[in-house]
Amino acid sequence: MKNILTPRQLQIIQLMVLGMSDKQILCQLGLKRKSSVSGHILRARDRLGVGTREQLIAQCVAQGLVSVPNMAEPVTNELNVSEEITVSV
What we know:
Elements: H1 7-17, H2 22-29, H3 34-48, H4 53-62
């Protein structure tokens, strides 16, 4: 099946897979309006013929369009100090 979703739609769906809310996705992508995120999601749902966000994610994962993070490794709250952190002001 040819990929009928735009790169931006796939990017938003991947962030949804990571558990981000519309507001978090908005901030992550630097979009100005929450309606931009929900609009992309709605158009992606229409293109794939699914009714819910959950169905959208499930179909994209099943088709290999987005990936599910490996949750086998334990999650820690510790910061790896060897990583460089950049802050934009």
